[in-house]
From TrEMBL:
Pfam families: DUF3097_C (PF11296), DUF3097_N (PF22845). Transmembrane segments: none annotated. This is DUF3097 domain-containing protein. InterPro entries: DUF3097_C (IPR021447), DUF3097_N (IPR053883). Residues 20-83, 113-269 form the DUF3097 domain.
């Protein structure tokens, strides 16, 4: 008979338990080893164990084993498990406040697109409007700044059946961004923006747990300056994941961003 062997691992070295979360359809998670972020499409039993299929904002599918501590949900490590038969009652509203469409399948992607400036912008739009975008078949892609926007619009070739919407950071009168926007705006191209230096500022300070977003001196990297002023580690990627984890619905965003994104979705889905 095997004798009892006590666990002599010091408490500070033991892995803390993590919550088990049912892999319900449309749940948005990130796989910890690859960083792939997407919505749950389905769970399956395989010879190697249960798997989950995720779909990212570009419609790409990837299959991952449902291993313990294998995913991040709102920035926190979780273990995905197969949902119970029947499952819980689905929400009646999406994160954007729209009426949820039960069992809605993602529509085939439209020819039209929405472009945003960077990855953080795209992740924030996905967090709040992801359900709406999938139902409407709208794909969101991100640029690295707006300097090349005229060439990108020219290559895209917008038209009545392929409208293009663009969301620009810090779109204020007299700025470089406003001049570029004026060059490309037309019947089938809509460029809108918010007044914030970076999309981080579009998240309400109260949702993040701060009084206000710091004022960063000109000439200093804004995101790094924010981290310094708030006493956060100067890791802007980790800071953004913390901020994003606090966004649960449209109520966590400033109206100046909400209105612009809704305007772009309406524009891209409009049929002439």
């Amino acid at each position: 008979m095997r004798s009892y062997q006590p666990d002599l691992t010091p408490p500070w070295k033991r892995s803390a338990p993590v919550p088990e979360v049912p892999a319900e359809p449309d749940l948005v998670v990130e796989e910890v080893t690859t960083g792939f972020c997407g919505a749950v499409i389905r769970c399956e039993k395989t010879a190697q164990g249960p798997t989950v299929t995720l779909e990212d904002r570009f419609g790409k599918h990837r299959v991952f084993p449902m291993e313990p501590r294998g995913f991040l949900l709102e920035g926190k490590v979780v273990t995905l498990v197969r949902p119970a038969p029947g499952g819980p009652v689905r929400p009646t509203r999406t994160a954007s406040g729209s009426v949820a469409v039960p069992q809605a399948r993602a529509r085939v992607a439209r020819a039209g697109r929405i472009y945003v400036e960077g990855r953080h912008d795209a992740e924030l739009v996905e967090r709040v409007w992801g359900d709406d975008l999938r139902v409407e078949g709208v794909v969101v892609e991100y640029l690295e700044g707006v300097d090349d926007l005229p060439a990108i619009v020219g290559e895209f070739g917008p038209g009545p059946d392929a409208r293009l919407g663009v969301l620009v950071d810090h779109l204020v009168p007299g700025s470089k961004e406003s001049r570029i926007a004026a060059r490309v705006t037309g019947d089938h191209v809509l460029v809108v923006g918010h007044p914030y230096i970076d999309v981080w500022e579009a998240v309400k300070p109260s949702s993040v747990g701060i009084d206000a977003w710091p004022v960063v001196p000109r000439g200093q990297d804004w995101k790094t300056g924010v981290c310094r002023a708030l006493g956060w580690p100067e890791n802007t990627g980790a800071a953004w994941q913390h901020i994003l984890s606090k966004v649960r619905s449209y109520k966590d965003l400033e109206p100046q961003l909400l209105g612009r994104v809704e305007e772009l979705i309406d524009f891209v889905t409009l049929v002439d």
